[in-house]
């Protein structure tokens, strides 16, 4: 990965955290509760009130990713 892209991504992520301060707090709280077999559901509602929902069950390989996200946020 290009180091300049990492700096750009960090800046964008910092702005995202400033705009949505509850999101990092949520992920930190969830990271302590997520374990193998947990189900994560994501729901998006558009301005036109269209809804898209998906979910997935956490497996053992996903736990490392959740822990990394916790450390980043």
Summarize the structure.
With 73 residues, the protein is of the alpha+beta class. It contains 3 helices and 2 strands.
Characterization of the model:
Helix content is 58%, strand content 19%. It is of the alpha+beta class and 73 residues long. The mean pLDDT is 87. Helix 2 runs antiparallel to helix 3.
Between the first and last Cα atoms, what is the distance in angstroms? 20 Å
Q: Which structural class do the helices and strands define? A: alpha+beta
Low-confidence stretches: none
How would you describe the shape?
A: globular
Question: Would you count the extended β strands for me?
Answer: 2
Mean residue pLDDT = 87
Total count of helical runs of at least 4 residues: 3
Q: Characterize the biggest β-sheet.
A: 2 strands, antiparallel
Query: Could you give the order of strands across the largest sheet?
Result: 1-2
Q: Calculate Rg over CA atoms.
A: 15 Å
Helix and strand run: HHEEH
Provide the helix percentage: 55-70%
Strand fraction equals: 15-25%
């Amino acid at each position: 990965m290009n180091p300049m892209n990492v700096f750009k991504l960090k800046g964008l992520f910092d702005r995202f955290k400033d705009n949505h301060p509850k999101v990092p707090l949520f992920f930190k709280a969830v990271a302590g509760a997520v374990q193998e077999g947990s189900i994560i559901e994501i729901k998006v509602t558009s301005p036109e009130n269209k809804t898209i929902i998906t979910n997935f069950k956490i497996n053992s390989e996903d736990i490392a990713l959740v822990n990394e996200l916790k450390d980043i946020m």
